[in-house]
Amino acid sequence: MKILLTGATSFTGLWFARELAGAGHQVVATVRSESYEGVRAERFKALKKVTSMEPHVSFGSKSFLEILESGKFELMCHHAAEMKDYRSLDFDHMAATASNTNNLSRVLDVFQRGGGQGVVLTGSVFEANEGLGDPGAFNPYGLSKTMTYEIFRYFCEQRKLKLGKFVIANPFGPYEEERFTHYLVKTWASAQTPHVKVPEYLRDNAHVSLLSRCYRKFVESLPSQGRILTKLNPSGYVCKQGEFAQKYAKEFSKRAGRDLQVILDRQSDFSEPMRRYNSDSAVEYVGGWEESKAWDECFEYYREKLR
């Protein structure tokens, strides 16, 4: 299929693009820039090898509409979302929602007129009405994702255009930002022991390679769906963050040939919901996924840092 993908320079975006392209799909990626730094620059370089790039294009813009009109895409995968300072309580959920859904009615009309069969929208376990455990949006970012989906849902249902929602929890693996697992490796590399400040939170961490397999299968299944709305909530390791950190240390210790430890602090920050996780087993959904190979890939990416 010919697929238009937004948000492809993100951590999961790169993996989704590679997985789709590797399965033989023609992926056109719209990106906002041609100049990136750090790990995003690494991802941009890798992305150019597997997609046709359309730089300086934001969702809903004039140039985006022109690409849609001339491209004749079968699917549109909207993975991009405003995320700057996404954990902050000052995150502007209204501006983010407006950006995520910019000119949506026009976008869908042009897409559908060109033969578009369906839209895949990336959701988040941080949203309201998503995931198991404690209810409600985590924060204003989660609220923006909730509102984004409801707007997409309304306009897709109006047009009887298929909409698939792919809900992401906490992905980890090669090319990720400097978040939790990156912090673990960085601390071990400096010959120190990392602290887990919120070990009691029950979360859902998933190998990005597993999520990308789920994403491809979900995308490929959308055109044949008999209903307008479909959703997948792929789940990985559902456990407390302290337990996940210990598992990560154990897997890296085996591959590094040395004992890597973590320190579980006594948690004092309970500002987020205690429990939030997805409901659909990712391993069962895709079948044939090799967990050990995923850990190998993760370790190889960080090997130089640990020497």
From TrEMBL:
Pfam families: Epimerase
Record-annotated NAD-dependent epimerase/dehydratase domain positions: 3-192
InterPro entries referenced in this protein's UniProt entry, alphabetically: Epimerase_deHydtase, NAD(P)-bd_dom_sf
SUPFAM superfamilies: NAD(P)-binding Rossmann-fold domains (SSF51735)
Gene3D superfamilies membership: NAD(P)-binding Rossmann-like Domain
Protein name (database record): NAD-dependent epimerase/dehydratase domain-containing protein
Organism taxonomic ancestry: Bacteria, Pseudomonadati, Pseudomonadota, Alphaproteobacteria, Hyphomicrobiales
